[in-house]
Amino acid sequence: MDATNAKGNIPMYDAPMRKAAVDVNENKISAKDVQVYYGETHAIKDVSVDILDKTVTAFIGPSGCGKSTFLRCLNRMNDTIDICRVEGLIALDGEDIYDKRVDPVQLRAKVGMVFQKPNPFPKSIYDNVAYGPRIHGLARNKAELDEIVERALRRGAIWNEVKDRLDSPGTGLSGGQQQRLCIARAVATEPEVLLMDEPCSALDPIATAQVEELIDELRENYSVVIVTHSMQQAARVSQKTAFFHLGNLVEYGETSQIFTNPVDPRTESYITGRIG
Amino acid sequence: MTDATFTGESPKRHGSLTASDVRTKRRNASEKRFRIYGLAAIGAGLFFLVVLLSAIISNGIGAFQQTFIQVPVYLDPATLDKNGNRDPADLAKVSTFGYTPLIQTGLYQLVRDAGIETDYEDAGDMKALISASAAAKVRDWTLAHPDRIGDTVEFEILASSRVDGYLKGRVTRESIAEDRNIDAGHLDLTDALRESGALHKSFNAEFIFGSDASESRAEQAGLGVSMLGSFFMMLVVLFLALPIGVAASIYLEEFASQNKFTDFIEVNISNLAAVPSIVFGILGLAAFIQFAHLPQSAPIVGGLVLTLMTLPTIIISTRASLKAVPPSIRDAALGVGASKMQAVFHHVLPLAMPGILTGTIIGLAQALGETAPLLLIGMVGYIATNYPDGLVSGFMSPNSAMPAQIYEWAKRADPAYYERAWGGIIILLVFLLIMNVIAIVLRRKFERRW
């Protein structure tokens, strides 16, 4: 919250959307009038949102509201779905990521992603983390790669647990460890934005707490976008919160404001547990 | 508001736990019945398997043993080398007809020396005991050892299929009543020779490694050359069907967009898997022999036809195993910025490997046992070939294949071939068993959990 507050209060969103008046330098991703269609289904309607650098932004909303779909638009993971069509403008540092000249592979190196279910490769812990740097050519030699792997595992807050067994399979770790390994894998390629799609939904409370703590630390270096079903989690880890409902972005603003003083009655109903 | 707080009287539904009610009894009984059906089905399957295996083994095991006669043959220089200079060109001029009397004389001498009483006056009367292949065997040996001409050399000569059948119980004194090839005197002689030790049954490697023989020399026929034919066909299938099939399925499964065209291709691949194999045979005849002018009866054509036949099997099983790789692995790879190709080749393919290999080996095993398409491209019939000279002739010169050879033997008139057909089945089954074991071992080796 500090990062945003220092620059002055950001006017809250209310439906219908208008562009946030934030400092341009702080804007990492800005989406404007984004529409997503799955075949005939209109999954995301007119979503405009600005995601700030060095901030944790939470997407909340009931199941099927489109928050994961929108998240996957931000690094073009939806490209893998044939029937999915994205319209509107999504810009990363002012560059349209859906431009024809943009290679999604390069984009995804900048915008890393952590998935709902921990999905380590069935390889060693070391190879899991080293895979990204290897294919992007980030290390010139083994020593450099070792260094990158160690740094990533440290950032993933899992180094101390696995440093003695880097050669054992990543799939042999516990669920929470696997998810932190996946986070380490995502940060190993030095992304600028980290997308997290319900990263704690498969974890127990202790592992969740560890991952949340980690997310808070990651904020120092990255812009983090997290989709979550848990409103408490959104309240704990994020500075900005966006509430999605039925494909619409209903409300976007400071997390404290969304949870204490929501503008839209739908937001209020959701956070008080009346809909969802 | 729910009705959970409703406090009206609810009927008492449950009796004592120790007494089972009617409904539970009925459910338990039906489960028990189902288990009995299952056991009965498995039992019937096992019974038929045992019957099949015991029939195959009891009928076919005899083919691995053959009757031989130890005949001392005097390699008479007067007939074999009239000029006396041991010139290989001159020696080669003497055909097998020159050797036949020498062998018959040798056998006559053997009978005389053993003191066996017989009504046969003439050496030629005993030729029913010896295989017609004997002369060729002695001639080949003599041409290789010209210095031994003039010596008496002991040869292990194949007995004729009638004599062999007599030892194996297939031919009896009753059954030869109408037989013009052999009479009761020959059987007496056989018994006497057996007692003297000159005639015996032993393991016949020629059956496994030898070549096919003409209709009248069942005792000489072997599966070896057609085994090589099968081997060269499998090489063609492996090196064409595996890469094409795997590449096609990777493309269809991972890269191709879902549209009417790919749906159409998909339906057609599934349909091809169900096309009778003889249809592939006639396609091969039209495409490879009549259009492309590849040689008839050649393993290369057989291999191409079997490739066409195996491709759908490989594609379907490969696609199934690619589909079984959890999508989260693809997401993970794409999420760290791997390209589609890298995601597939670094992560998806290794995980799908056990399934792909299993499918391929099962496809190969299917192709190995396939006979029908070979009928149409001329790989069935008596193909008088010996071992191919090299790789090229292995692919291009006429040959048969194991199942085609078995089929060919099974339809020949001589009952001795019937036994060889069963024996061939044993060898074919051993190969299929080996391939299945390889499939299991590879699957175990490559299997990784995630």
Description of the structure:
The complex is a heterodimer of chains A (276) and B (450). In chain A, strand 4 (84-92) and strand 5 form a beta hairpin. In chain A, strands 6-7-8-3-9-10 form a six-stranded mixed β-sheet, sandwiched between helices. A four-stranded antiparallel β-sheet of chain A has the order 2-1-4-5, with helices on one face. Chain A contains eleven helices and ten strands. Chain A is an alpha/beta fold. The mean pLDDT of chain B is 88. Chain B contains 18 helices and three strands. Chain B is 62% helix and 5% strand. Chain B has two domains: 61-203, no CATH class; 224-446, MetI-like (MetI-like fold). Chain B is mainly α and 450 residues long. The A-B interface holds A 75, 77, 80, 82-83, 105-106, 108-109, 112-115, 117, 119-122, 131-132, 135-136, 171, 182, 185-186, 188-189 and B 257-258, 326, 328-339, 342, 346-347, 351, 448-450.
CATH architecture of chain A: 3-Layer(aba) Sandwich
Shape of chain B: extended
Distance between the termini of chain A: 27 Å
List the secondary-structure elements of chain A in sequence, H or E: HEEEHEEHEHHHHEHEHEEHH
Task: Quote the CATH topology of the largest domain in chain B.
Answer: MetI-like fold
Q: Into which percentage range does the β-strand content of chain A fall? A: 15-25%
Quaternary: heterodimer
Radius of gyration of chain A: 18 Å
Strand content of chain B: under 5%
Produce the secondary structure layout.
The complex is a heterodimer of chains A (276) and B (450).
Chain A: H1 2-6, E1 27-38, E2 41-52, E3 56-60, H2 67-73, E4 84-92, E5 95-96, H3 104-110, E6 111-114, H4 125-136, H5 142-155, H6 159-162, H7 175-188, E7 193-197, H8 205-218, E8 223-227, H9 231-237, E9 240-245, E10 248-254, H10 255-260, H11 265-271
Parallel strand pairs in A: 3-8, 3-9, 6-7, 7-8
Antiparallel strand pairs in A: 1-2, 1-4, 4-5, 9-10
Chain B: H1 22-60, E1 65-74, H2 77-80, H3 88-93, H4 96-113, H5 134-144, E2 152-158, H6 161-168, H7 184-196, E3 199-203, H8 205-209, H9 224-255, H10 260-273, H11 277-291, H12 299-324, H13 327-335, H14 340-368, H15 372-376, H16 391-396, H17 402-410, H18 415-446
Helix pairs in contact in B: 1-18, 4-5, 9-12, 9-14, 10-12, 11-12, 12-14, 13-14, 14-18, 17-18
